[in-house]
Design goal:
With 416 residues, the chain is of the alpha+beta class. It has 14 helices and 15 strands. It is globular.
C-alpha cells in the first residue's frame, strides 16, 4: 500500500493579511483528501509564535462543512465558521504540538516545542524530518516574500509554491517590473521612489513624478499585497497623503500611471498559472470592482453591492490567447513555481468621448505567488472553470512541490 504523504498546512502569519490566510488555511484543511494525506495544521500568530490546537484536525474533519460540495460557494455563515475554526487554532495559546507520524521509521515530533528560529532550519529538526511537504498559505509579508521559503530551503523541506527568488521578486513591485521590462512585457508607465527621498525633498519628488507620469496615478507600497496601502490619486492635492500612506508600509513606493487617462475605468483581468518548468494558464476571468478600483475593502469587506467576478471574461479569442501567453511569460520572468495569479489591466472598448477603440491595449499589472486560496477565491475559481476542481488543485500543487524538490536534489552544492 502506498504510504500517505504528511502535509503541513501553514497559515496565519505576522502580515496584514493574517485574517485572509486563516480563511485560506481553513478551506484547504476542509477540502484536502485525508485518504491520501496525513494533515498537520500549523498556525503562526500575529506576534510570530508558532501554534497549533491538538483538537483542530478533529474539529475540522468532523465539521459538516467538510462534506459540503466544492462546487457550491459557501454562504456568509459558512465563511465565518471557516474563519472561526482557523482562528481557534491560533487562539488556543498552546505551543506547536504535532501528533507523531504514522510512519514508524520517521522521527517522532510528539510534544515538539517550536520557535521560529534557526533550530527549525536544521534538516535533523523533528519537524523537518516528519513532514513530506509544507503547504504555506501565508499571504503578504514574511509569507510570500521569500522569507519563509528560505527557512524551508535551509531545512530541506519540500514546499508548495515559488522559491526564494521567485517569491521575493514577485513581492517587490519594483523588482517585478524590472523583470517584466527585461522580458518585453507591456506595463503602464511608472516611477519608483524611496521613502527617504520623499521625506528629504517632497517637492523634488513630486516634480519627478509629474514629469514622468500623467494623472490619475496609483500609489503603492512596493512590498505588500491585497491592495493594502494603495491609493488612487486624481490630482496633485491628493499625492502627498497617498505617498505618506504607502511610505508607512514600505521604504520603496511605486507610482503608476492610470490606464486610459482621466475618467477611464480599465477592465481588471486575472489568470491563474499552474506548473513548474512547463506552466499552464487557466481561462481568463474578470473582476468588476464595487469601487473605483479593486482595493482591500472591495476584496474582503462585506458590501451590499460586492465586487463581481466574471468567469470567463468576455474577450475575443485573440485577446484571451494574448493574455494567457503574457501570464505564462510573467511567471517565467520572475522564476515562479507551483502557482501564481497574474493580474492585467485592459483599456475599455470605448474611450472618454465614447469613441470605440479598434484594439484596446492590455497591460501586465502584477503577479501574486500566494493568492487567496479559499474555495471562492479567484485562483481556485479560475481552475474550477478550466476543469480542475478545488480538491484536485490541492493534489496537483502538492505533486508539483514534490517534483520540484526531487529536481533540487539533483543539484550539487559542493565539489565531489
Amino acid at each position: 500500500m502506498k504510504k500517505k504523504l504528511r502535509i503541513g498546512i501553514l497559515f496565519g502569519g505576522r502580515s496584514g493579511e493574517h485574517e485572509v490566510s486563516l480563511l485560506s488555511g481553513a478551506s484547504i484543511l476542509k477540502a484536502i483528501d485525508r485518504k491520501k494525506y496525513d494533515v498537520v495544521p500549523i498556525g503562526i500568530g500575529k506576534q510570530g509564535q508558532w501554534l497549533t490546537g491538538p483538537e483542530a484536525d478533529h474539529l475540522l474533519a468532523a465539521n459538516p462543512l467538510a462534506a459540503s460540495s466544492l462546487g457550491a460557494a459557501p454562504s456568509a455563515d459558512e465563511q465565518d465558521l471557516e474563519f472561526a475554526l482557523a482562528t481557534a487554532v491560533l487562539r488556543s495559546g498552546e505551543p506547536l504540538n504535532i501528533p507523531p507520524p504514522a510512519h514508524p521509521q520517521r522521527r517522532s515530533t510528539d510534544a515538539l516545542q517550536l520557535a521560529a528560529n534557526a533550530e527549525m532550519a536544521q534538516p535533523s529538526n523533528p519537524l523537518a524530518a516528519s513532514l513530506d511537504v509544507v503547504f504555506p498559505v501565508l499571504h503578504g509579508t514574511f509569507g510570500e516574500d521569500g522569507t519563509i521559503q528560505g527557512l524551508f530551503e535551509l531545512a530541506g523541506i519540500a514546499y508548495v509554491g515559488s522559491g526564494v527568488l521567485g517569491s521575493a521578486a514577485a513581492m517587490d513591485k519594483d523588482a517585478m517590473k524590472r523583470l517584466f521590462a527585461a522580458a518585453g512585457l507591456p506595463q503602464t508607465p511608472h516611477v519608483t521612489l524611496l521613502r527617504s527621498a520623499w521625506r528629504t525633498d517632497p517637492r523634488r519628488a513630486t516634480r519627478l513624478i509629474e514629469k514622468a507620469l500623467a494623472y490619475p496615478l496609483f500609489v503603492k507600497p512596493a512590498n505588500l499585497g491585497s491592495s493594502v496601502g494603495i491609493s488612487k490619486v486624481h490630482a496633485r492635492a491628493e499625492l502627498a497623503a497617498a505617498i505618506d500612506l504607502a511610505a508607512g508600509f514600505d521604504r520603496k513606493i511605486v507610482v503608476e500611471q492610470g490606464v486610459g487617462g482621466a475618467g477611464v475605468k480599465p477592465r481588471e483581468l486575472e489568470v491563474a498559472v499552474l506548473g513548474n518548468d512547463q506552466p499552464e494558464a487557466s481561462i481568463v476571468g474578470e473582476i468588476v470592482p464595487n469601487k473605483e478600483f479593486y482595493d482591500y475593502e472591495s476584496k474582503y469587506e462585506p458590501s451590499e453591492a460586492p465586487s463581481m467576478p466574471i468567469i470567463p471574461a468576455k474577450l475575443t479569442k485573440a485577446q484571451a490567447k494574448q493574455i494567457r501567453a503574457m501570464a505564462i511569460a510573467a511567471f517565467r520572468a520572475c522564476d515562479c513555481a507551483g502557482l501564481a495569479r497574474v493580474d492585467f489591466l485592459m483599456e475599455p472598448a470605448h474611450g472618454v468621448k465614447g469613441r470605440k477603440r479598434k484594439q484596446p491595449r492590455i497591460y501586465l499589472n502584477e503577479i501574486n505567488t500566494l493568492p487567496g486560496f479559499t474555495s471562492i477565491s479567484m485562483y481556485p475559481k479560475l481552475w474550477q472553470a478550466s476543469g480542475m476542481p478545488y480538491k484536485k488543485l490541492i493534489d496537483r500543487l502538492i505533486a508539483l512541490a514534490v517534483e520540484r524538490h526531487r529536481e533540487k536534489l539533483e543539484t550539487r552544492f559542493t565539489k565531489p
